[in-house]
């Protein structure tokens, strides 16, 4: 009698255009210049505290076209604090932090932003500010005799929708 | 000296108005030409908003820069996030590279015309570069002698250094000099340029980083932690409570924005700069300032 053999098959999708599409963004630097030296790693605070995070590895995944591992829900790129140490340390002019921002933009285009990020962005677009303008805000400002804050002008929505610059 | 429009941002006027209060007192004491301009929005912040869309981030920042220009003023900011966004966006829009080209066209359609003449800077940079450390020191009528301070620059004050162009991104002295101008001592400590962790979406990473910094500062006997950014401020003040809860520790290092420290050295009392509003109470600091 044959016994069934369980064998896990892992298929990895490669997007050969991934690197090219990110290379079109000037800020990321010339990705092809990365020789995986790891100079970006020692000063990376996210890598120190998150075992899954490594800026060198992120650049490698982009070079290999492993888009699915980065442009996905709960992507590891959100561990990054955007401290820029990686870009400052790179001897080749590659900017891993900007690669990460470009990946985040892709995640947004794919509708896969973490809820926390999507909520924060929506709030800014709707109220022009990071924080909701509550009565508490006004009361605290009054106590300190600070000028009144004006809200509700839809400044960001108007500039994004092309309804003028006011 | 320049003419400045005060860019308050969001976290300072809404969550930490005591920092705004202190900064206004300092501007007055130093006779800086700083006015309020109506109509600024969020800079927008360089983490979530920029992460969602570089194009929209540039567009909104471009509008803020234009508003200052229309008023014939440069931007002075109290937050590393605001200054980083406005300085970087200003740079990108002036260079007119791939990312900026489309945005510049969209801005033109909205009657926003940037001629590259507006400047944005963090207020700390304005004090250091335009006013000078000596003048800051001369304004300190009540020097904070004997106070041991650990400074935290915050990443975006200095980086990306090729654009910020203000001090060395790994061994700066600007903020240390400005702190010493108040009479306090700026202590060297381990991993001084490490990030506060505020912007990481991973709470373990974020609090781990804050905790490590607190321990490195405590190790050298710091009595106060000085920041230049409200995000770093919240991460260390409110964050300290979270670190204490998560790791069952008892950190109690008071956190001040640089402008609160400077206002104290210029003679303001702790109530006037709102220290009682902070989560971590400034007991040691009060001994130094109430002498």
Helix fraction of chain B? 40-55%
Rg of chain B over CA atoms, rounded to whole Å, is 19 Å
* Principal-axis shape of chain B: globular
**Beta-strand percentage of chain B?**
5-15%
**Can you count the beta strands of chain B?**
8
Tell me the count of domains of chain A: 2
For the largest beta-sheet of chain A, the strand count, sense and barrel status come to: none
> What is the CATH C level class of the largest domain in chain A, in words?
Mainly Alpha
Structure explained in plain terms:
- The complex is a heterodimer of chains A (166) and B (291).
- Chain A is mainly α and 166 residues long.
- Chain A folds into two domains: 18-109, Alpha-helical ferredoxin (Fumarate Reductase Iron-sulfur Protein, Chain B, domain 2, Orthogonal Bundle); 115-161, no CATH class.
- In chain A, 42% of the residues lie in helices and 0% in strands.
- Chain A has helices spanning 18-23, 45-49, 55-64, 85-89, 96-109, 115-127, 135-143, 155-161.
- Chain A is elongated and about 70 Å long.
- Chain B is α/β, with parallel strands linked by helices and 291 residues long.
- Helix content of chain B is 51%, strand content 10%.
- In chain B, strands 2-1-3-4 form a four-stranded parallel sheet.
- The mean pLDDT of chain B is 96.
- The interface between A and B is large, with 58 and 63 residues.
Topology (elements, then pairings):
The complex is a heterodimer of chains A (166) and B (291).
Chain A: H1 18-23, H2 45-49, H3 55-64, H4 85-89, H5 96-109, H6 115-127, H7 135-143, H8 155-161
Chain B: E1 3-7, H1 11-15, H2 17-29, E2 33-36, H3 48-52, H4 54-70, E3 74-77, H5 80-95, H6 98-109, E4 120-122, H7 123-131, H8 133-138, E5 148-151, H9 155-158, H10 161-164, H11 174-180, E6 185-186, H12 203-219, E7 224-227, H13 230-247, E8 255-257, H14 258-265, H15 283-289
Parallel strand pairs in B: 1-2, 1-3, 3-4, 5-6, 5-7, 7-8
């Amino acid at each position: 009698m044959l016994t069934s053999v369980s064998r896990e098959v892992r298929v990895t999708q490669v997007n050969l255009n991934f690197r090219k599409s990110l290379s079109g963004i000037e800020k990321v630097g010339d990705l092809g210049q990365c020789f995986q030296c790891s100079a970006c790693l020692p000063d990376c605070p996210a890598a120190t505290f998150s075992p899954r995070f490594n800026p060198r590895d992120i650049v490698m995944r982009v070079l290999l076209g492993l888009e699915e591992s980065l442009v996905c829900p709960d992507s590891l790129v959100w561990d990054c604090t955007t401290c820029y140490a990686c870009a400052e340390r790179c001897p080749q002019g590659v900017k891993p932090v900007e690669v990460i921002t470009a990946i985040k933009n892709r995640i947004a285009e794919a509708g896969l932003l973490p809820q926390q990020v999507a909520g924060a962005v929506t709030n800014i677009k709707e109220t022009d500010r990071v924080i909701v303008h509550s009565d508490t805000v006004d009361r605290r400002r009054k106590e300190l005799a600070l000028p009144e804050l004006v809200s509700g002008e839809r400044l960001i929505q108007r500039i994004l929708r092309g309804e003028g610059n006011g | 000296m320049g003419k400045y429009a005060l860019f308050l941002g969001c976290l300072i006027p809404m969550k930490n108005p005591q920092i705004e209060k202190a900064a206004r007192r300092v501007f007055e004491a130093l006779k800086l030409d700083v006015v309020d301009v109506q109509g600024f929005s969020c800079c927008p912040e360089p983490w979530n908003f920029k992460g969602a869309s570089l194009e929209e981030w540039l567009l909104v920042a471009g509008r803020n820069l234009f508003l200052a220009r229309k008023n014939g003023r440069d931007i002075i900011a109290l937050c590393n996030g605001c200054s980083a966004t406005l300085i970087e966006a200003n740079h990108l829009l002036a260079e007119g590279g791939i990312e900026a080209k489309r945005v510049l066209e969209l801005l033109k359609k909205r009657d926003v015309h940037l001629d590259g003449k507006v400047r944005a800077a963090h207020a700390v940079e304005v004090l250091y570069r335009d006013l000078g450390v000596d003048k800051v020191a001369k304004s300190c009528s009540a020097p904070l002698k004997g106070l041991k301070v650990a400074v935290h620059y915050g990443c975006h004050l200095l980086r990306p250094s090729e654009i910020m162009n203000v001090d060395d991104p790994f061994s700066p002295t600007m903020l240390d000099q400005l702190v010493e101008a108040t009479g306090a001592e700026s202590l060297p400590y381990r991993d001084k340029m490490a990030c506060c962790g505020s912007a990481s979406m991973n709470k373990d990473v974020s609090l781990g980083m804050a905790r490590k910094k607190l321990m490195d500062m405590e190790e050298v006997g710091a009595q106060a932690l000085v920041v230049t950014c409200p995000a770093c401020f919240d991460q260390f003040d409110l964050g300290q409570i979270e670190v204490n809860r998560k790791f069952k520790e008892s950190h109690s290092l008071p956190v001040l924005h640089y402008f609160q420290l400077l206002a104290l050295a210029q003679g303001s009392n702790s109530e006037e700069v709102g220290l009682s509003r902070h989560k971590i109470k400034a007991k040691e600091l009060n001994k130094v300032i109430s002498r």
